[in-house]
Every structure is written in C-alpha cells, then in structure tokens.
Amino acid sequence: MSIRPIRLFGDPVLRTPAAAVTSFDKEIQTLVADLTDTMLDAPGAGLAAPQIGVGLRVFTWNVEGQVGHLINPVLTLSDLTQDGPEGCLSIPELSIDCVRAQSVVAAGFNMHGDPVTIEGSDLLARAIQHETDHLDGILFIDRLSQESRKAAMKIIRESEWFGPDTQVKVSPHATNGFGF
What we know:
Active site: 131
Distance between the termini: 39 Å
Binding site for Fe cation: 88, 130, 134
Function: Removes the formyl group from the N-terminal Met of newly synthesized proteins. Requires at least a dipeptide for an efficient rate of reaction. N-terminal L-methionine is a prerequisite for activity but the enzyme has broad specificity at other positions.
Keywords: Hydrolase, Iron, Metal-binding, Protein biosynthesis
Shape: globular
CATH architecture: Alpha-Beta Complex
EC number: 3.5.1.88
Radius of gyration: 15 Å
C-alpha cells in the first residue's frame, strides 16, 4: 500500500483518545496495510493509527518475525511485571526502561471484523500494551518514574527533531501509578 509519515511527540493527535472502529470495510483494510508498511519501513515493533494521524483504534506489531494487527483491543494484564527498554517511533532515538505487565491477553477484531484473541508475553506483551496506550492518548514516557521521565524529557529537548513549535502535554489519562 503506502508508507505514511509518523507523527512525532508533541503532535496533539498522540494525546487524543482514538475512536472505536465500527465499520470493517476497504478503508480499514487499507489502513492496516499502510500501518504495516510504515512500521516495517521504520522499522518498529509496533505502530498505532494515531501515530500516522488517524484517530481510530487500530495497531500493528512486528515482534520476533510475527506481524499482526488488532482493532478495538481490550486487554487483560498479568499481575507479574517486567522492566525493560522501550522506545517509540514517535519519540525517535529514545530508549528507556519502562515497567509493563509480563503477559497480556488482547481481545479485539481483525481487519475483516472477525473476533480474535492474542496472547503474548515479554516483548509481544510490551508491544501490545505500548500500542494500546497510543489508542488511549498515552505515551510510554507517561508510565516512567518521575526521575526517568525527567531524564527522558531532557533527551527529547536536546534531540535534533524537537523544536520550539513542539507542543508538550502531560497525559490527561490515568497511568496506573506510573508517571504523573
């Protein structure tokens, strides 16, 4: 299909909760194809529709050779957690440790409207949680400790892509005790 520009930190679309998909038509199939092509080209472990400026609850992933997509995800998280490096295509050149659930069960739909359930642990669980956060207007830096978030913001402010026109906002959504 086509590779689309990835929106960067500061773009308001990244802080706006995405709308549920209600029609599984050719447009959704094209969106999934564009997300997949863009993610693979970047390359990234996942990409959510808001990251290409589309406010719909759709994301793709590419973890350990497994490429997939999920629409309108609902997650069930394990009580066990993992702490490891995380990055984001919308925040280039930043990787910092972030706490996530160790495993996840994600229920939703494929691009044809068929119900699907994805179970994952480790990196796949991290990717699914990260991309679902994007659909809720949450960035992974919102889930960092105050000290780690401060360090991340310093790196962002010093990056070449960050400029005076970049709009920075704290997430208005609950971050489950992480971040602020």
